[in-house]
Design goal:
The chain has helices spanning 41-58, 63-79, 81-92, 96-116, 155-166, 180-192, 207-216, 229-241, 264-276, 293-309, 328-343, 379-382, 398-406, 421-430, 467-471; strands spanning 6-8, 11-13, 20-25, 28-37, 124-126, 132-139, 143-147, 170-174, 200-202, 222-226, 245-249, 254-258, 286-292, 347-350, 369-372, 389-395, 410-411, 413-417, 435-438, 454-455, 474-481. The chain is of the alpha/beta class and 494 residues long. Bound molecules: nicotinamide-adenine-dinucleotide.
Length: 494
């Protein structure tokens, strides 16, 4: 197996450092996926210089033509969906059904971006003066630095990259060090689809080195970051100081609320998928289950029974429900939270440890874990765990459920199961989250709707939907005065 390379200056190149890091399968550490560049700041420097040249060419390419490239990207992704899903599962562990969905999100994002090439609306409005036109339109910004996490190795890079490119920016892409192979495969597809080579740069490496160098670089005016709230804070401080345009998508502590009148069968399927899909490593994972008194005991009983039956294993093996955690440090972190839960007096209803099955001994597996009697305000209830741990909180009514949902520092997604249409609409209105699902789990975003969170989950921008095109373009206004005379706005009007 050969070492993988960066893509800088229109060519696949070795890192300036000469150093590489290993990428291994989290379901079986004996399986080496590849060695990837542990790049340095000099590689970022070269990438930015090249991306500046790429930008000069790309910004003059008509937006519909840019969209055509992205349509071909979508076609290529669709034709390789199975192979992409397989390599993604191999390097980050979630089952194939989920990595297929991850690729599909990228395909949807590509086709959506392609059509946006023929819109990218500005406004033409009446001027307040005679014989004068007033209009707004969009301009590209420059080199976009994109920094992404491991949990959606295809969807999240495409959410950023495709609108950035469609708007005419060039890109320096720093994928998470846990999923470099997916990043490599995506850049190969972009090049094959006909993207001019200097418009995209791929620099592998550690966040504190490559990510930081990208954020620090004076010639990168635009940064889009998805990752933890802690890292996002560091990125935000630098971008604030340097007056950069910044989109942050960060942590979550999402809740599913189940009220007494809910369809309990539906709510049960929802929470199993929301809490234990992707081994709980989703920004939108259901980390809290808020149950109304009347159904609490019977719901917990059924949930624990089903959670115990979830099949842990290699995501590439048919029948696997839950894959491994992404690395040992994540598992150690989950174990730490199990201890915290115990010490806070919560009741461990199931899971709580590593599986005893010897066939799983080479991977970072952890049992689906449920704590009941969790107190609102406790650390278990407040802090993002990013693993297969669900905290159950008992409440008396919808008001209390809403207050518990809103009582955390994050605000990504929420879910409410009820048959009462009044309560459902109140939930959409009153829950402090970027997304509220009614009778559906906390996960399920679609590419053509805006995605993001409030409070410490985000900084006001959205990915996906039409809104993201605002982020990747600058609005400019043009006035054309054809009156042949000096017309003074606000003085000579009407
Ligand atoms: P992370 O913060 O550890 O890493 C994210 C990316 O930032 C990686 O590419 C990493 O290399 C890079 N990075 C690390 N230090 C950096 C620095 N100092 N400067 C610049 N870049 C740096 O996050 P992770 O463990 O990969 O992902 C998990 C986190 O991401 C969770 O908190 C999760 O909630 C969040 N997440 C949020 C969303 C969302 O849309 N809100 C989506 C997915 C994941």
């Amino acid at each position: 197996m050969s070492d993988f390379k960066n893509f800088i200056g229109g060519a696949w190149v070795a890192p300036s450092t000469g150093e590489y890091f290993e990428n291994r399968n989290p379901a079986d550490q004996r399986d080496l996926v590849g060695r990837f560049p542990a790049s340095g700041a000099a590689d970022v420097q070269r990438a930015v210089e090249s991306a500046k040249r790429g930008f000069e060419e790309w910004k003059r390419t008509p937006a519909p033509a840019r969209g055509d490239v992205l349509r071909r990207v979508g076609d290529l992704m669709a034709s390789r969906k199975e192979a992409l899903a397989d390599l993604m599962t191999r390097e980050m562990g979630k089952p194939l059904a989920e990595t297929r969905g991850d690729v599909q999100e990228g395909i949807d994002t590509a086709y959506y971006a392609a059509t946006e090439g023929r819109r990218l609306f500005g406004h033409t409005v009446p001027s307040e003066l005679r014989n004068k036109w007033a209009m707004s339109f969009r301009r590209p910004i420059g080199v976009a630095g994109l920094i992404t996490p491991f949990n959606f190795p295809m969807a999240i890079p495409t959410w950023k990259m495709f609108p950035a490119l469609l708007c005419g920016n060039s890109v320096v892409f720093k994928p998470a060090e846990d999923v470099p192979h997916a990043g490599h495969a995506l850049v190969e597809i972009l090049l094959e689809a006909g993207l001019p080579p200097e418009v995209i740069q791929l620099v592998h490496g550690m966040g504190e080195v490559v990510g930081k160098a990208l954020v620090d670089h004076a010639d990168v005016p635009l940064i889009s970051f998805t990752g933890s709230t802690e890292t996002g804070r560091l990125v935000g401080e630098t971008c604030g100081r340097m007056h950069k345009r910044l989109s942050l998508e960060m942590g979550g502590k999402n809740a599913q609320i189940v009220l007494d009148d809910a369809d309990l069968d539906l709510a049960l399927e929802g929470v199993l998928w929301g809490a234990f899909g992707t081994t709980g490593q989703r920004c939108t994972a259901t980390s809290r289950l808020i149950l109304q008194d009347g159904i609490h005991d019977q719901f917990v009983e059924r949930l624990v029974e089903r959670a115990r039956k979830l099949k842990l294993g290699d995501g590439r093996v048919a029948g696997t429900d839950v894959g491994p955690l992404v690395h040992e440090a994540s598992r150690a972190n989950v174990e730490r939270y199990v201890e915290i839960g115990r010490s806070e007096g919560a009741t461990l209803a199931c899971g709580g440890g590593r599986p005893s099955d010897a066939s799983l001994a080479n991977g970072f597996f952890f049992e689906p874990t449920i704590f009941t009697d969790v107190r609102a305000g406790s650390r278990l209830e407040q802090e993002e765990i990013f693993g297969p741990v669900l905290s159950v909180i008992r409440v008396r009514n919808a008001e209390e459920a809403f207050a518990v949902n809103n009582g955390v520092r994050y605000g990504l997604s929420s879910s409410v199961y009820t048959r009462d249409v009044t309560v459902a609409f109140r939930a959409m209105q009153d829950l402090d989250n970027g997304i509220t699902y009614v009778n559906a789990p906390t996960i399920g975003a679609e590419a053509h709707l805006p995605f993001g969170g409030v409070k410490e989950t985000g900084n006001g921008h959205r990915e996906g939907g039409w809104e993201v095109y605002e982020f990747y373009s600058e609005t400019k206004v043009g006035y054309v005065d054809y009156s042949g005379a000096l017309q003074r706005a606000q003085i000579d009007n009407y």
